[in-house]
């Protein structure tokens, strides 16, 4: 391989004084073609073993959207003594890839080769564990964090809280949070998001209240999580305060917060306020439209929901599966049978969307509400997907409403085949027999329930009292 001393003096001067450092050139690469040209020059000039410059090449290949992780791995394998930065780069790239387990394998290799991990290593590893939903992996990385003395580093603490939360281990996430001597906004936000995403909305709201009392101002990610919690817990008052806070700070919601506000108001039944936020948004995405269409449909504004869907298409947006669920739900609640049939049957041909279980569920509900029980039953039987208890239960409710005992008996058999402990359906069928005057059947069913000590799971509801 040619050495720099082998070049003529003039050329050597030009190379050493006129060319920028290779690391700087690597940072200016925009395509793999540029990078490969630079890589070739580094080989020719015997600079390929310059770890700093090689690290910049590796970073572009592994992390850039126009990079090539396969090429990055080849660069890494040719490095004589890969450093901490090189390992971290590949760990980070793998953690964000379709194969996050490779990040953990890279860490094992790093340890075997005696390269000491740093504060940037562990958050990437924890991200890989979170993608795998591997709580045991989080525990192992946590042990390494303590071993190397990074358990109080905020960047690492945030990774631990987020990793445990995504894996559903909220107790450990809260323990890490409570034991940390310092907490920044990111740490607070990670735990609040964890509670909100794991159906612990009340805990998310309590933690948010504590964060505000501690004088920490929330950012967009925090507020979006809290709005999600407000939607689930029915905390309209808190949601309204957040809207006021956003208006005071910026005046513009942005797509993420605007969509979260629309969803929160819709879930709380404040459709008019949801519509005001929706109309006032300067920018909307498909999720924003979906939230508003679904909200209008569920709350009895089916015609408005379908009009909004027409406007959605006129604006050039392309519907997804969630959009069609919202549209079919609007047809169901509005009683628009023909429109619902048309939307459902055009999903494949017009929208290129394969109907899923939730689409069939909406259609069964629509047909059942309109008394088309046999058509609904036939639709379920012809499904590519195996019907669940909810779909059969929807048809059973329609049978009870229409008083069709014959179809109800077949539906009950299907439900028992899926869930033999679902004794509530016996109660529904018994009531239907009673309404039809078939008292012998009522006595038989009640005897079966009494002998088997079957009990219907009692219903319950929650009431908002004083916020």
Shape: elongated
Strand content: under 5%
Secondary-structure element order, N to C: HHHHHHHHHHHHHHHHHHHHHHHHHHH
Helical amount: 55-70%
Number of strands: 0
Main sheet overview:
none
Low-confidence stretches: 14-19
Rounded to the nearest angstrom, the distance between the terminal CA atoms is 76 Å
Rounded Rg:
30 Å
How many separate helices?
27
Average pLDDT, all residues: 87
Please explain how this structure is put together.
The protein has 27 helices and no strands. Helices cover 70% and strands 0% of the residues. The model is unreliable at 14-19 (pLDDT under 50). The protein has helices at 9-18, 22-27, 32-44, 51-63, 69-78, 84-95, 101-112, 121-132, 135-147, 154-166, 170-179, 185-197, 201-213, 220-233, 236-249, 254-267, 271-280, 286-298, 302-314, 321-334, 337-345, 357-369, 373-381, 389-402, 405-418, 424-435, 439-451. By secondary structure, the chain is mostly helical.
């Amino acid at each position: 391989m040619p050495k720099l001393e082998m070049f003529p003096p003039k050329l050597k001067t030009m190379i050493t004084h006129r060319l920028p450092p290779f690391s700087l050139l690597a940072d200016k690469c925009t395509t793999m073609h540029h990078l490969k040209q630079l890589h070739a020059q580094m080989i020719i000039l015997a600079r390929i073993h310059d770890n700093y410059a090689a690290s910049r090449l590796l970073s572009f290949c592994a992390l850039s959207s126009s990079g090539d992780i396969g090429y990055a791995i080849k660069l890494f394998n040719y490095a004589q003594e890969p450093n901490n930065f090189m390992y971290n780069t590949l760990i980070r790239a793998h953690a964000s890839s379709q194969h996050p387990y490779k990040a953990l394998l890279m860490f094992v290799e790093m340890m075997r080769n005696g390269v000491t991990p740093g504060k940037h290593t562990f958050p990437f590893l924890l991200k890989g564990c979170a993608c795998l939903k591997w709580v045991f992996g989080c525990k192992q990385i946590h042990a390494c964090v303590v071993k190397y003395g990074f358990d109080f580093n905020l960047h690492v603490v945030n990774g631990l809280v987020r990793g445990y939360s995504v894996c559903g281990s909220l107790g450990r996430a809260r323990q890490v949070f409570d034991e940390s001597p310092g907490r920044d906004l990111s740490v607070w936000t990670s735990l609040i998001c964890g509670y909100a995403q794991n159906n612990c909305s009340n805990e998310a709201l309590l933690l948010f209240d504590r964060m505000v009392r501690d004088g920490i101002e929330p950012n967009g990610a925090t507020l979006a999580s809290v709005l999600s919690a407000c939607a689930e817990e029915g905390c309209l008052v808190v949601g309204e305060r957040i809207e006021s806070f956003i208006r005071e700070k910026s005046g513009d919601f942005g797509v993420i917060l605007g969509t979260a506000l629309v969803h929160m108001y819709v879930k709380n039944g404040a459709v008019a306020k949801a519509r005001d936020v929706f109309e006032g948004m300067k920018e909307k995405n498909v999720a924003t439209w979906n939230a508003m269409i679904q909200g209008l449909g569920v709350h009895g504004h089916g015609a408005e929901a379908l009009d909004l869907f027409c406007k959605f298409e006129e604006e050039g947006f392309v519907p997804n599966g969630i959009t069609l669920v919202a549209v079919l739900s609007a047809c169901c609640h509005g009683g628009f049978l023909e429109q619902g049939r048309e939307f459902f049957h055009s999903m494949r041909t017009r929208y290129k969307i394969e109907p899923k279980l939730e689409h069939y569920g909406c259609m069964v509900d629509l047909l059942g509400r309109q008394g088309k029980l046999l058509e609904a039953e036939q639709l379920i039987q012809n499904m590519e997907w195996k019907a669940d208890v909810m779909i059969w239960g929807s048809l059973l409710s329609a049978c009870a409403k229409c008083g069709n005992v014959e179809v109800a008996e077949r539906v009950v058999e299907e439900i028992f085949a899926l869930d033999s402990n679902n004794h509530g359906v016996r109660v529904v069928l018994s009531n239907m027999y009673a309404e039809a005057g078939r008292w012998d059947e009522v006595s038989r069913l009640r005897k079966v329930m009494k002998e088997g000590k079957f009990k219907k799971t009692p219903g319950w509801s929650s009431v908002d009292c004083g916020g």
